[in-house]
């Protein structure tokens, strides 16, 4: 599990019930009128290389520290220091994504996400033009996301 140095103290990331609870409490989103859970929101935003998702990941990954948990502003400062040190956000994105992608706690959900990305209609013969366009868009999105996943897992 990755760690983050905040105000001179090392904090270890952890993906567990507290991570999930905080993610759902703070980072649920809505897309096309459907609620997306906090974990899913963070995971997908990491795949889109969104820097705010790194903050959200660490905010949740440190939830197990209870009363000693750093506040978001301190997490952001520590992340900014890492970005300055590393030269960009790539390593932070990789650490966060890899932690979630390989987490035993979230393993079934991650597999489900990738299964959904790869899903296509069983029969292409009877699909309408609208269904064909939707399927092709889904296939393209799945390819892009899989490429990003591969890039982050390097």
Short description:
This protein is mostly helical. The protein has one domain.
Helices, by number, come to 7
Uncertain runs are none
Tell me the number of strands. Answer: 4
Average predicted local confidence, pLDDT: 86
Q: What general form does the structure show?
A: elongated
Radius of gyration, taken over Cα atoms and rounded to an integer in Å: 17 Å
- Percent in helix: 55-70%
What is the domain tally?
A: 1
Helix-strand category: mainly alpha
- Tell me about the biggest sheet? 2 strands, antiparallel
Order of helices and strands: EEHEEHHHHHH
Strand order of the largest sheet: 1-2
Task: Report on this structure.
The chain is mostly helical and 154 residues long. It has one domain (3-152). The protein is 62% helix and 9% strand. The protein contains seven helices and four strands; from the N terminus they run E-E-H-E-E-H-H-H-H-H-H. The chain has helices spanning 17-27, 38-47, 51-61, 72-86, 90-101, 107-118, 129-152; strands at 3-6, 9-12, 29-31, 34-36. The chain has a two-stranded antiparallel ribbon with strand order 1-2. A two-stranded antiparallel sheet has the order 3-4. Strand 1 (3-6) and strand 2 form a beta hairpin. Helix 1 (17-27) packs across helix 2 (38-47) and helix 3 packs across helix 4 (72-86). The protein is elongated and about 60 Å long. It starts with a strand and ends with a helix. The model has no long low-confidence stretch (mean pLDDT 86).
């Amino acid at each position: 599990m990755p760690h983050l140095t905040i105000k001179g103290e090392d904090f270890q990331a952890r993906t567990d019930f507290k991570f999930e609870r905080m993610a759902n409490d703070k980072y649920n989103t809505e897309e096309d009128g459907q609620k997306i859970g906090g974990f899913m929101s963070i995971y997908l935003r990491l795949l889109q290389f969104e820097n705010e998702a790194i903050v959200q990941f660490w905010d949740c990954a440190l939830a197990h520290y209870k009363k000693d948990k750093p506040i978001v502003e301190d997490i952001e400062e520590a992340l900014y220091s890492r970005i300055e040190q590393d030269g960009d956000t790539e390593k932070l994105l990789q650490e966060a994504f890899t932690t979630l992608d390989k987490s035993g706690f979230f393993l079934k959900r991650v597999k489900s996400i990738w299964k959904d990305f790869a899903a296509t209609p069983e029969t292409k013969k009877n699909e309408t033009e609208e269904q064909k366009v939707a399927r092709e868009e889904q296939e393209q999105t799945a390819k892009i996301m899989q490429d990003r996943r591969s890039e982050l897992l390097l």
